[in-house]
Design goal:
The protein is mainly alpha-helical. It has 8 helices and no strands. Helix 1 packs antiparallel against helix 2, helix 1 packs across helix 4 and helix 4 packs antiparallel against helix 7.
C-alpha cells in the first residue's frame, strides 16, 4: 500500500467538495427551489459514489488520484483536446441546468420509478469506472503517456478498448432520468458526441505513442459496445 501525502488527500477532498457545491448550484439555482427531491437524490448518489472511489484509491493507488486531479481543458497538451475538453465541460454543466429549468417550468414529467432507475444507471456507470481504475492505474484525466505505461488488455479492457468512456455513457443515459428531465438529453447528446470525438483522437495518439496499442486494437475490435462499435 502506497503512502498518501496529506497534500494529495487535501486536494482530492477539496476538489470533490467544490464539484458537489457546483453541482448543487447548477441544480437548485435555476429551479429557484430546494424542493427538488430528484436533485437531492442524484447529488447523494453521485457524490457518495465519487467519495467511495476517492477514498479507496487514496489508500490503494494514490498515483492514480494524482493523475486524475490534472483535469480540464487547461491540463491538456494538444490544442484539439483543449477544445474537446472545454466543449465537454460546457455540455456537462448544461445538463443539470436544463434539468433544473425543466423542474421549475414543468416541461416534462418522469415517474418516480424511472427517476430511481436513472440513479441506478448513474451508480452503475460510476461502479464500472471504479472497476476500470482498479484494472488500469495509468488512467488519466488527460491524454498522455505515463512513465512505464503499458497496454492493459484484461478485465473490462478485454471487452472494449475504452471501458471508461463506455461507463460514462451508461451514466449519461441515467443523468436526465435521475434529475427528472427529458429535455436534459439535449446537452447529453452533444456531450456524447464530444466524447466520441475525444476517444477517436485518443486512439490516434495511443497508436502513435504507446507500444503495443496497434496489436491491442486488432485483438479487441470494439471501442465502446461489444459486437456493435
Amino acid at each position: 500500500m502506497e503512502t498518501v501525502s496529506a497534500d494529495l488527500t487535501k486536494r482530492a477532498f477539496i476538489g470533490l467538495l467544490q464539484f458537489v457545491i457546483a453541482l448543487a448550484l447548477f441544480l437548485f439555482v435555476p429551479a429557484w427551489s430546494i424542493h427538488f427531491w430528484q436533485a437531492w437524490l442524484f447529488i447523494f448518489v453521485f457524490s457518495s459514489s465519487i467519495l467511495f472511489i476517492t477514498v479507496y484509491f487514496l489508500k490503494k493507488d494514490p498515483a492514480l488520484i494524482q493523475r486524475r486531479l490534472k483535469a480540464g481543458a487547461t491540463a491538456e497538451k494538444e490544442q484539439k483536446q483543449k477544445v474537446i475538453q472545454l466543449l465537454a465541460t460546457i455540455f456537462f454543466i448544461c445538463t443539470p441546468i436544463i434539468g433544473s429549468l425543466d423542474h421549475r417550468f414543468q416541461w416534462s414529467h418522469i415517474p418516480r420509478n424511472v427517476v430511481i432507475l436513472g440513479d441506478a444507471l448513474v451508480a452503475l456507470g460510476l461502479f464500472i469506472i471504479f472497476l476500470v481504475f482498479k484494472e488500469n492505474t495509468f488512467t488519466s484525466s488527460t491524454i498522455e503517456i505515463a512513465q512505464n505505461q503499458r497496454v492493459i488488455d484484461t478485465g473490462p479492457y478485454s471487452l472494449v478498448r475504452h471501458p471508461m468512456y463506455a461507463a460514462s455513457f451508461v451514466m449519461f443515459i441515467g443523468m436526465p432520468l435521475a434529475i427528472g428531465s427529458l429535455w436534459a438529453y439535449i446537452p447529453v447528446l452533444f456531450l456524447s458526441g464530444t466524447i466520441v470525438w475525444r476517444l477517436l483522437d485518443e486512439e490516434k495518439f495511443l497508436e502513435k505513442n504507446l507500444t503495443g496499442y496497434t496489436a491491442y486494437r486488432q485483438e479487441v475490435r470494439y471501442r465502446l459496445i461489444p459486437y456493435i462499435w
